[in-house]
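A protein record pairs a chain with a discrete description of its three-dimensional fold. The shape at a given residue is found from the number at the same position. Here is what such a record looks like in full:
>
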Amino acid sequence: MSAEYATFGLAPAMRAGGVLANGDYQIHRDFVDFIVDGRPLLFQLSDLDAVSPLASDVPPAIFTAQVRSLLLEADAPLPGGRYVVYGCPECEDLGCGAVTAVIDRDGDDFVWRDFAWQTDEHADLERNGYHGIGPFRFHGAEYRAALTSLLDTSADTPRRRVLLIGARVALLAKLAAALRTIGIGADITRDAHDVPADELRAYGAVAFGRAITEEERAAVRHSFERAGVDVVYVDGLAPIVPLLVAQIENALDRSPLERRRLTRLVAADGEAGVEVTSPCRVRLTAYRLDRLYRIHTHEVFDGILEPGRHRIALDARAVKGESFVVARTSGSVLVEAMAH
């Protein structure tokens, strides 16, 4: 079985959740992505909204079974020796579509080949095969070491919980409800002075409302530092729930910058500057507060962008006054205040 050697690795990745402009919710998923020759394999599959089977929110026994399966220590779940490489981020139904591949052992090597898009038990390679991807041959020792490292129960796991600190209880309650809906835990408090260290370790981010003073923020930071907990701090830009959700999603993104599709967002003078590393769908949403603090939401761009930097003109009505832009791909979210 011939195939050139490729390097195999793993890296944390995220399917970004959020509250979309039309009111729909998109579930947040943390997962481990496959890194082939230093680049996420998912990025080679066009603009695919999917997660690997190695998701952090599956029960430990199922996660272990998925790892053992990729190590060929169990029978293939699909006919023809096929394994699910990426599946629907919202459910586990094959009917939603999945990327599958045949995984073989050749001597000490592991080979991934015959990638295909599959919606039922059998793959049609002629019609739905990814003909430009693979086959990939991985050195057995490298492959096994990467996957078995996931079985270390002491390994760090994503902390998908956020501490919300603010004065507007009604807004915080709506924000917490939205976060919980997309799969992120949220708690509300005014300070963290009396919170036990063990509880603080459950949080991956702290979000401050605009009314929280610098003195109060410093006290919260001190509580986390005293507990030895490293968290990301989010300064809420405006009392707009979808905007705050997007800020928190960005804060929870653990993937290295060089392995993200969306790496840059600039919002100034009625334009958005966006940089992407691979072809992908990018959606830009503008949120605006008028003089009466009413919220206005505008979908200002939705299209496929090629790798590189892009300048996108925005509707002047959508970004006048106090306004903000959210850029979203399937795996990343960036937020910027519009500079005038």
The first helix runs from residue 60 to 70. Residues 197 and 225 are 10 Å apart (CA to CA).
